[in-house]
Amino acid sequence: MNELSHVGMGQCYFCGSDSVVLLDRRLKKSLPRKVGVVDMEPCNDCKGHMKLGIVLISIADSTTNEQMKGRFPNPCRTGGWVVVTQDFVERIFSGEVKAFALGRRFSFITDEAWEMIGLPRE
Q1: What does the alpha-carbon distance between residue 36 and residue 53 come to, in Å, rounded to a whole number?
Q2: How far is residue 35's CA from residue 31's CA, in Å, rounded to a whole number?
Q3: How does residue 1 score in pLDDT terms, banded at 50, 70 and 90?
Q4: In this predicted structure, what is the pLDDT of residue 102?
Q5: Is the whole-model pTM more than 0.90?
Q6: Is 55 exposed, middle or buried (0-12, 13-18, 19+ CB in 10 A)?
Q7: Residue 57 confidence (pLDDT) above 90
Q8: Dihedral-angle region of residue 16 (phi above 0 means left; psi in -120 to 50 means alpha; beta otherwise)
Q9: Element of type H or E holding 15
Q10: Quick one: the chain helix, strand, coil %, rounded to 5?
């Protein structure tokens, strides 16, 4: 049962952990306890990881262009999540992918590429 309240929790887009308290200013008990992603602001943990390196998140090989569009790209995540050095990204990636990862401090990477590079799953 999803209990409604005027207080809810938003989750971090990058790691999925609770990251922000949300208030329904109308106080009508219209928010579920877990609201989901409301912005692309990383939580404090992810901010720390992004200062140290670049977050890579594995996604399904079958990810479509449609899933990658919109305010919050929503590919099927497959559980891989690592922080790599900027040097690693500069050596492994090129072009737009490299520029995106270095600029945003994160990138999605398909399972096929994840395995080819040899990134850990746990």
Answers
A1: 25
A2: 7
A3: very low
A4: 97
A5: no
A6: buried
A7: yes
A8: left
A9: none
A10: 30, 30, 40
